């Protein structure tokens, strides 16, 4: 029977399925159910600095700046305490690794939150710096530099593994990943998903599209994981987005990932889908004669693709011609 154990960011996992930060991971009971269903690790629902400021920003007009500051500090502390409590309670009842997730936009808060998460017992920290760069006077490269600056500050303050979850809006993710590795990142997750707006032409309003991932999103993750894992093989990779079944897990590992973050599949099919995915992966490995993930991890990444690298191809050429009548 296939051995599904893997290592990601220094964490020893019983299999490559990590449940990504979401409403699935916002209570200890839910996380325990995920563990019982076969999940190898979880990323806690993120602490969003933006949400904290949105809450505290409404608390004004109580007669004095001192009163406003006191109430804002109280609300911020209460929200952080709730997240710390979630982390501590989860660690009490679960044996799988628990990864804390923080999403900040001010430089100081990154280190403050990171220290709190480590003190609360997090096994690792996932940093999410997802943002669009839309300023007319934007200086090229400054967003990438911000990732490096934040990583350096956090690494100075914590000893637990630091995982960088990247958005897919970079010109060249490989250059950034190489710099992240040089500055101490323990792993990279490709990719986070931007909020996607939509326009309602009947109501003339702005809303959002489906927040769930689609299977087609896996392709871009496979492309960049295959390219990056060939260029910077010392770093661990996880794929996030479009991983809906065991075949997707196999593709992710063949591209060079050590694990995959899963969310939508569990929302749509419930926790039993985890066992189904792992069974599919195990059966595929048995059919191919693979005993461990290490035997085929990166087997089809860009390094082994040959001189004509399909992962770097941008035009359809013969691939399109195969489908025309």
From TrEMBL:
<keyword id="KW-0288">FMN</keyword>
<keyword id="KW-0665">Pyrimidine biosynthesis</keyword>
<keyword id="KW-0285">Flavoprotein</keyword>
<dbReference type="InterPro" id="IPR012135">
    <property type="entry name" value="Dihydroorotate_DH_1_2"/>
</dbReference>
<comment type="function">
    <text>Involved in pyrimidine base degradation. Catalyzes physiologically the reduction of uracil to 5,6-dihydrouracil (DHU) by using NADH as a specific cosubstrate. It also catalyzes the reverse reaction and the reduction of thymine to 5,6-dihydrothymine (DHT).</text>
</comment>
<dbReference type="InterPro" id="IPR013785">
    <property type="entry name" value="Aldolase_TIM"/>
</dbReference>
<protein>
    <recommendedName>
        <fullName>dihydrouracil dehydrogenase (NAD(+))</fullName>
        <ecNumber>1.3.1.1</ecNumber>
    </recommendedName>
</protein>
<comment type="pathway">
    <text>Pyrimidine metabolism; UMP biosynthesis via de novo pathway.</text>
</comment>
<feature type="domain" description="Dihydroorotate dehydrogenase catalytic">
    <location>
        <begin position="4"/>
        <end position="285"/>
    </location>
</feature>
<keyword id="KW-0560">Oxidoreductase</keyword>
<dbReference type="Pfam" id="PF01180">
    <property type="entry name" value="DHO_dh"/>
</dbReference>
<dbReference type="InterPro" id="IPR005720">
    <property type="entry name" value="Dihydroorotate_DH_cat"/>
</dbReference>
<comment type="subunit">
    <text>Heterotetramer of 2 PreA and 2 PreT subunits.</text>
</comment>
């Amino acid at each position: 029977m296939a051995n599904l154990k893997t290592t990601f960011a220094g964490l020893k996992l019983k299999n490559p399925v990590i449940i990504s930060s979401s409403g699935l991971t916002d209570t200890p009971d839910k996380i325990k159910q995920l563990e019982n269903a076969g999940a190898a690790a979880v990323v806690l629902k993120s602490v969003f600095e933006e949400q904290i400021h949105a809450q505290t920003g409404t608390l004004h007009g109580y007669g004095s700046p001192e009163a406003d500051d006191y109430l804002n500090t109280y609300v911020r502390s209460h929200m952080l305490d709730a997240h710390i409590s979630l982390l501590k309670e989860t660690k009490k009842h679960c044996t799988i690794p628990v990864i804390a997730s923080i999403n900040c936009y001010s430089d100081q808060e990154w280190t403050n939150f990171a220290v709190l998460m480590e003190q609360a017992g997090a096994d690792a920290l996932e940093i999410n710096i997802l943002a669009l760069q839309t300023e007319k006077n934007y200086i090229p490269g400054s967003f990438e530099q911000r990732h490096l600056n934040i990583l350096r500050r956090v690494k100075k303050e914590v000893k637990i593994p630091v995982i960088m979850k990247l958005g897919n809006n970079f010109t060249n993710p490989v250059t950034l990943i190489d710099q992240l590795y040089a500055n101490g990142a323990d792993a990279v997750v490709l990719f986070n998903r931007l909020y996607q707006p939509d326009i309602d032409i009947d109501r003339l309003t702005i809303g959002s599209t489906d927040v769930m991932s689609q299977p087609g999103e896996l392709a871009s993750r496979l492309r960049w994981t295959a390219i990056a894992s060939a260029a910077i093989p010392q770093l661990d990779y996880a794929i996030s987005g479009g991983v809906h079944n065991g075949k997707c897990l196999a593709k992710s590992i063949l591209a060079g990932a050590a694990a995959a973050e899963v969310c939508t599949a569990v929302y749509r099919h419930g926790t039993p889908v985890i066992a189904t995915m792992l069974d599919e992966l195990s059966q595929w490995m048995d059919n191919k004669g693979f005993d461990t993930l290490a035997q085929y991890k990166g087997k089809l990444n860009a390094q082994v693709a040959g001189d004509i690298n399909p992962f770097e191809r941008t035009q359809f050429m013969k691939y399109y011609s195969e489908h025309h009548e």
